[in-house]
Amino acid sequence: MERDEMPCDVLFVGAGPANLAGAIHLMDLIEAHNAAIGSGEADGEVLDEPMIVVLEKGSGVGQHQLSGAVLDPIALDELIPDWRGRGCPVERFVEREEMVLLTPESAVPAPWIPPELDNHGKPIISLGRFCRWLGEIAEEKGVNVLSGFTGQELLWDGEAVVGVRTGDKGIGKDGQPKDQFEPGMDLQTPITILGEGPRGHLTRKLIQRRGLDRDSEPMIYYVGVKEVLEMPAGSVEDGWVMHSVGYPLDVHTFGGSFAYSMGGDKVCIGLLVGLDAADPQMDAHHLLQLLKMHPHVRSKLGAGKVIKYGAKAVTIGGWASVPQLSTDGAMIVGDSASFLNPLRIKGIHLSMKSGMLAAEAAFEAMLRGEATAQALSSYPQKVQDSWIVSDMEPGRNMHANFKDHFVSGMVQTALQYAFGPGPQKRYSPDYTHIERKASYQPAPWTTQEVPYDGVYLVDKLTDVYNSGTQHEEQQPAHLKIVDTEVCATTCREEYGNPCTRFCPAQVYNMRESEQSGRLEMEIDFANCVHCKTCDIRDPYQIITWMPPEAGEGPEYDLM
User: Fold this and answer.
1) Whole-prediction pTM value?
2) Domain at 8-74+131-168+181-217+319-392, CATH homologous superfamily
């Protein structure tokens, strides 16, 4: 099959904060270099008309971005020092914070807020809007942003990455080309920077092929679910942020919740649930509705109407899960490389800084005219020499502390806060922690029914609509199950088909088959919000998330 080929100097895969910051920084470095050559201040050759490309699978920059985003601006200050005067889309600045321990009936305020969670004065942002703003700046500097293109396969020359093949368009359900079929193109480049977000499709392939996780702990994750509520005019306290732990999670489940005010009489609320939760019936969307039913939360948000919804996996392994960051022809940045501090529950600033450091390594490689593993090894060294390490190192055992019980986790974290993180604790992949349904006794409130009203308390399918997700249904499902017989038999018996609950978009459903008369798996892939939860938590590891046709998926705005 003939494919169009597009050569470029550096290719960034994914238009998130890491890659957009990297692309902007790279163009700044090239501009400064060329100016120094032109003025005679430096020797060398001008990098004339560099082809810097950012590939984005969403229909536009920011469409797939979601975060509980109270931003630490340290990296933004370095990248765009005058961001406050350049139209950076800040919703509000934090003015008042509260942290509470929720029990099923009460809320106990924390006597103090740990410094790691102190956000006073920091900007509250919508990550989607923030990335659109960064994308506009990147394009102004000459970066080519290609939205609506998935990175389907890495291109290889031996064991060196030499580019990316984008996904075909116009494939029918039967796997055959339709009349409007368009083959993907080959983006050929000596330097590929992967910033696909958590559980990146190409990143996983690179890590597996090159063994980049040999010396790191497994990547582990939360699933984050988030809603935006529209409140009565004048009822929202500007700059308010709340963090909570406890209810609706049981003592064996790691996670917490957040809420904060936004502009235009809107607030957001979100819940983070560890994907290593022992409960085989864990349902983050259901738990989010239970959270909103809590008296303390309802007193603040109960007059609101849900207008937006989204979900995504969140990397929480921290520093211990960071893989080898570079290899021949490629580097990994942002959430794809586990750059998030679980102690602070922040990662945007780390993602941006990692992208900027990768850009510096790419710039040096461009000047040398080579992109070998040795040439790109300056990137991980730059990370080691940066403030990323001092930010992430204290929280490297955060998740492991809570693997057994909430109370013991709090005690261990307090001790490590006082005396340092101590020896590195070992992790195992999230799916290995799920207990069989016969042996797990859930907390009584987690099975409580929700009195959905379609306004404040909304069911899962209504929230799928609120996510704006869309997929062409006459295409092969982008969620692949190796053997659906496992779903109908072994998984149903041992775990009760957990994917029908842990999926925050109701993609997986057990329905009676007309042919067999038994319950069998049906995949409603059009509901998918690209969170990757199924790929991570499936206890048999027989579900694989693949990119669908480009431009599809959720359409996040305020998220």
Assistant:
1) 0.96
2) FAD/NAD(P)-binding domain (3.50.50.60)
